[in-house]
Design goal:
The protein has 278 residues and is of the alpha/beta class. The protein has helices at residues 9-15, 19-30, 77-89, 96-103, 107-123, 184-194, 230-244, 255-271; strands spanning 45-48, 52-55, 61-63, 132-140, 157-165, 171-178, 200-203, 217-220. Bound molecules: zinc ion (ZN).
């Protein structure tokens, strides 16, 4: 079987009809370039029953799920495959309550599994923004109406957003990061990780960006109530709306995983590339 591509869940289930098919699929992808033992890096071994690889070097037996999102899944591999498929391919996310009901597992189990998937999705965000980039800060939760400027209400969760745009203002890539405050000290590591120094960056007049100008090409313009950064503000609005649809409370500790999932979906949709789940 080849690598699955596309977004059709019927085809997906047809090609992966049970747990065994999923194991076979993982084995095929994992060892397509040959076997290398995780323990002793020997390349000699053989594929045994149940899609496990037996290393001749150290006798270690490696399952096809080892070191993947599907390791030790107690509720069934095919269900896990379907959850990952749905989380990665739909433009809107499912809640853990919905997923629990849909796959006949408890809400707690689905929540923990979805958190694990979100972590994996974060790892897939590895391309720094390098051209036209708009950045801003925003808050999630708490009261927002009628307040001017940046509020420090502790119930609000602060976030930073960077959007790479085409010169026709279409979205290329997005990163959203949970942040403790908007100081230059907090902003700097996010810039270093996600924005290349080649980028042409535009932002509002917030003074926290001032010291970063030594390294980055930053132009500060008046926000004009968001009109100067229209696309960016649409994405902020979408993020907040999506988080409001979560039936469970999204704590500060976990909010980054939700941001990662949201960005992952936007970035994948924009890239218009076919997608595989591993
Ligand atoms: Zn070995």
């Amino acid at each position: 079987m080849k690598e699955f591509k596309g977004q059709n869940i019927l085809n997906f289930v047809k090609e992966l009809p049970d747990d065994d098919a999923c194991k076979a699929y993982l084995a095929k992808i994992k060892w397509q370039d040959g076997f290398k033992c995780m323990k002793c890096v020997s390349e000699k071994g053989c594929l045994k029953q149940d899609y496990k690889y037996h290393c001749y070097g150290c006798q270690y037996v490696e399952g096809s799920t080892a070191n993947t999102l599907f390791y030790n899944v107690k509720f069934g591999l095919q269900k896990a495959f379907c959850i990952v498929f749905e989380m990665s391919t739909s433009s809107k996310s499912l809640s853990s309550v919905q997923v629990g009901k849909r796959y006949g597992i408890s809400q707690t189990t689905s929540w923990f599994y979805m958190q694990k998937v979100r972590t994996a999705l974060e790892i897939s965000q590895k391309y720094p923004l390098s051209e036209l980039v708009h950045v801003d800060e925003f808050t999630v939760g708490g009261k927002e109406e009628g307040k001017q400027g940046r509020s420090y209400d502790s119930k609000k969760k602060k976030a930073f957003i960077a959007v790479e745009l085409t010169y026709k203002q279409r979205v290329k890539r997005v990163y959203i990061k949970s942040i403790d405050d908007y100081s230059c000290k907090s902003l700097t590591p996010i810039f270093e990780e996600h924005i290349n120094t080649t980028a042409k960056i535009f932002t509002d007049k917030w003074r926290g960006y001032e010291p970063l100008k030594k390294v980055y090409d930053i132009t500060q313009v008046k926000s004009n109530k968001g009109k100067s950064f229209k696309t960016l503000h649409i994405i902020i609005h979408q993020t907040k709306s999506w988080l409001r649809t979560m039936p469970t409370h999204v704590s500060k500790k976990h909010i980054q995983k939700y941001f990662d999932e949201f960005c992952y979906r936007i970035n994948r949709l924009q890239s218009k590339e076919s997608y595989s789940i591993i």
